[in-house]
Design brief:
By secondary structure, the protein is of the alpha/beta class. The chain is built from 11 helices and 8 strands. Keywords: Signal.
């Protein structure tokens, strides 16, 4: 492949992700007024890490209240939750993080392992206050894994248009082109890392399947019927696999698409309030 061909292929992939990637419609930059909300956490370095994993995150609300942890999909960043940070839900501290490989978080490359991603999120679980986890799209399986492994610290889980069913994951041929080094070099970081995550997602979700029954907290599944990126059938799959959860409720958003944090903001706020009231 010539350099010109690689550039053209990279352009096609960027265009394809611009149409179909999970979190493109949300804000990608943070309003200047929210700059004081930004913080950075350095995680313990694993033996296999070529560079440190640093997590950039935004926090607002009551720092003594239960913590709502917002986990974006792929690509995405904490800036996508700007509305929820600017007006935090009542009675909650809100923490939105740039997942490893996105936004201002390191490393530069992708961490495709759900295990590693979940470890990064788990570092934000507060002691003694409890946490509500909200995962959108690919953030959903990450949130689920955290809930499965830290039942004593998670009081509720919200799966928002979450991709949990491995049988629903399909790979477009252009994604394999994007993984080829001559093309990958021309891709923006967020697209390059999102592509790596999606290529590895099916086996990651297959491994997650065995851990879903370990979730004990109340779970709220929220999905739109016109989700063209993460099929609506994921909602039924999730409900069926959460056999160990003390309570599972599903909210069906008729006619809603995949981009619920921005196109169905009121419904998401209602879901957060509802999850906060769910008890077993």
């Amino acid at each position: 492949m010539t350099c010109k061909t690689a550039i053209r292929a990279a352009g096609m992939i960027v265009a394809a992700f611009g149409i179909a990637a999970c979190d493109i419609p949300g804000p990608v930059t943070l309003p200047e007024t929210m700059a004081p909300f930004r913080h950075t956490l350095l995680l313990d370095r694993a033996p296999q890490d070529a560079e440190p994993v640093t997590i950039s995150y935004l926090a607002s609300g009551d720092a003594t209240a239960p913590r709502l942890i917002l986990i974006h999909g792929t690509p995405g960043s904490a800036a996508g939750w700007a509305d929820f940070l600017a007006e935090p839900p009542s009675g909650l501290e809100v923490v939105a993080l740039d997942r490893p490989g996105f936004g201002d978080s390191g490393p530069e490359g992708a961490l495709t392992s759900l295990d590693r991603q979940a470890d990064a999120v788990a570092a934000f679980l507060p002691s003694g206050r409890g946490a509500i986890l909200l995962g959108h799209s690919l953030g959903g399986p990450i949130a689920a894994l955290v809930a499965a492994r830290h039942p004593e610290q998670v009081r509720a889980l919200i799966l928002l248009a979450a991709s949990l069913d491995p049988e629903m994951e399909e790979v477009h041929p252009l994604q394999w082109v994007g993984a080829w080094a001559p093309v990958r070099a021309f891709l923006p970081r967020m697209i390059r890392n999102a592509n790596a995550e999606l290529l590895d997602l099916k086996p990651q979700l297959e491994a997650l399947r065995a851990e879903l029954p370990l979730i004990r907290c109340p779970v709220l599944i929220v999905h739109g019927t016109r989700d063209d990126l993460v099929p609506f059938s994921n909602a039924a799959y999730s409900a069926a696999k959460l056999s160990g959860a003390c309570l599972v409720e599903t909210v069906v958003l008729e006619g809603a698409d995949h981009f619920l944090p921005w196109n169905a903001t009121a419904a998401v706020r209602d879901a957060i309030a509802r999850a906060g009231d769910m008890t077993c």
